[in-house]
């Protein structure tokens, strides 16, 4: 017996924010399973750029406790 979209939406609305985010990510990935050919190369360049900033001292960091507190505030 097929489940209606409205029923699914009703059930999904009862999930936590984290669980809904996981479902949303799954659904988005299911829409386009064609990998972006340039994405991996772009991420490699970005990671190298960030590593260089750390090495030369121009990166601005934040204490982990502040980062985690902000994440808890936003996603709890």
Give the topology, please.
Elements: H1 5-12, H2 17-31, H3 39-56, H4 64-75
Structural features, described:
With 76 residues, this protein is mainly alpha-helical. The protein has one domain. It is 70% helix and 0% strand. It is built from 4 helices and no strands. The longest helix has 18 residues, at 39-56. The protein is flat, with a radius of gyration of 19 Å. The model has no long low-confidence stretch (mean pLDDT 92).
Q: How would you spell out the order of helices and strands?
A: HHHH
Using the CA coordinates, give the radius of gyration: 19 Å
The main sheet comes to: none
The helix content is 55-70%
**How far do the termini sit from each other?**
35 Å
The average pLDDT is 92
| Shape descriptor | flat
The number of strands is 0
Low-confidence stretches: none
The helix tally amounts to 4
Q: How much of the sequence is in beta strands?
A: under 5%
The domain count comes to 1
Structural class: mainly alpha
Give me a quick take on this structure.
With 76 residues, the protein is an all-alpha fold.
Provide the descriptors you would attach to this structure in a database record.
76 residues; flat
